[in-house]
Amino acid sequence: MNRVAGSNSDKTSVKFWEGKVYKQKVSGAEGNKTASPYFYANLCHGNKTARVCLQTANKLEAANRARNAYLLLKSQGWEAMWEVYRVRKSREEADRQDAKHRGESVIEEHAKKEGEIETVGEFIERIEKISLVQLHTLEGYIGSFYRILEGIYGINYGNEKHNYIGGKNQERKNRIGKIKISEVTHDKIEEWKNNYLKIRMKENPSKRDSAVATINSTLGGAKNLFSKKNLKALGLASGITNPFVGIEFFEEASHRYVTKFSAKDILQDAQENLKPANKNAYIAFLLGLGAGLRKNEIDKLLWEQVDYSDGFLVIRNTPYIRPKTKESSSDIKLAQFIIKELECHRAETDGIFVLPSKIVPRLNVKYRHYRCQKDFKFLYKWLDERGISEQKRLHTMRKEYGSQICNKHGLYMASRALRHSSYSVTEKHYTDRTALVVPDIF
Predict the structure, then answer these.
(1) pLDDT tens, 229-240?
(2) Which residues have a Cβ under 8 Å from the Cβ of 330 and sit 6 or more positions away?
(3) Based on the domain organization, do 228 and 170 belong to the same domain?
(4) What DSSP line would sit under 194-250, residue for residue?
(5) 367-403 pLDDT, tens per residue?
(6) Residue 54 to residue 320: CA distance in whole angstroms
(7) Which of 156, 201, 245, 288 is the most buried (most CB within 10 A)?
(8) Domain limits at 356?
(9) C-beta separation of 182 from 243 below 8 A
């Protein structure tokens, strides 16, 4: 009886291989099993069976590749199949494997193709040329990638990596830059992720939440270097693929903001004690608690962005700052009290900035520069003395602003007021108290 083309028993059909491809189980940091990012297939020919990585997370594509690998194996044998479907973990390893299959003992030197990127240093150099994000943001992404590579390759300069004058920082970059980009694989990143957590848990089990947050933040930053937009700009000739595909983040503890102080009390305290001590610090406090502005937005806020008649702050691109996301560009409604305080402050100050300072903005730098850092430090110390000692104290004022809006008007309005990139970001950090209601029938 002849087999029907495309049936479940026909190995030349994609449908057959859809039922045969699978994802391997790999061990996580705590002994749990997770699925590998790519599909595999077991191929058999002659007296030999081998597992083949299909290098795709799409099942239908994996089935198609498995079918093609099988047809190639049947028609031309193992060597021809491996030439196409072997996983190339590094250029050197690929050359060694190819030579072995050809029965050769001498490996010809690899000739670099035009546009090909071989090292981490070359990759970073190209990314710096094509990336459209702000310089200090890109520098953060690069720093995250470097931290992962340091862990993978055992590179440890300690605090010396911050030594820009002595040259240790550049020495560290040069050493990392020589790493073959093809050797930075999914498996190595996964291993770094799990090992980092194991080490931190061994040092202090109570710090698991902070360790998980650090890992996820580092992964997220480094992953942004391999965005679809960047890879498209680099082009296929670069040979760069995203090693972070399939890397899962650890589940984090709740990030929901919990109010730990009375907003009314601290506002009154600020009027009586902070305002006469440091007017800039007081205005920064008001813009954080009363408008939800971010630190850099406060530092670079222009008087032309203040609409006194309608009671709004207009957050837009200026020569000194670009909003964090397109959602960050918006109008912010101000309380009449804050409008009056800004009017009084304007009468006492000169210049174009709401917070006057002798320090001019530094544009196009690889770090976050603040004109009014001394005033911010004064505010932090003042908040410390009142029990508000979080690392980002001014951002705590922004969180309190969001919490007040959320409690009174709900999550949607809070998301709009905070200018978050998505509603889910707000939902992650705030609880909608207005949802805690009972039916009217009772």
Answers:
(1) 999 999 988 889
(2) 315, 416, 419
(3) yes
(4) HHHHHHHHHH-GGGHHHHHHHHHHHHHHHHGGG-HHHHHHH-GGG----TTTTPPPP
(5) 889 999 999 999 999 999 999 988 889 999 999 999 9
(6) 49
(7) 288
(8) 263-435
(9) no
The continuous run of DSSP H or E covering 331 comes out as strand 330-333
**Alpha carbon 196 to chain centroid distance?**
17
Pull the structure tokens for residue 195: 């090992």
CA distance 389 to 397: 12
Which residues have a Cβ under 8 Å from the Cβ of 34 and sit 6 or more positions away?
Answer: 25, 26, 28, 248
Cα–Cα distance, 343 to 260 (Å, whole number)? 31
How many other β-carbons are positioned within 10 Å of the β-carbon of residue 7? 10
Structure tokens at 350: 């000169």
Note whether 95 and 211 are same-domain residues: no
For residue 274, give the nearest of 350, 362, 384, 359 by alpha carbon: 384
Output the six-digit token pair for 224: 């942004």
Amino acid at 328: S
DSSP secondary structure letter of residue 306: E
**What's the rounded Cα separation, in Å, for the pair 301 and 303?**
7
Do 192 and 281 belong to one domain? no
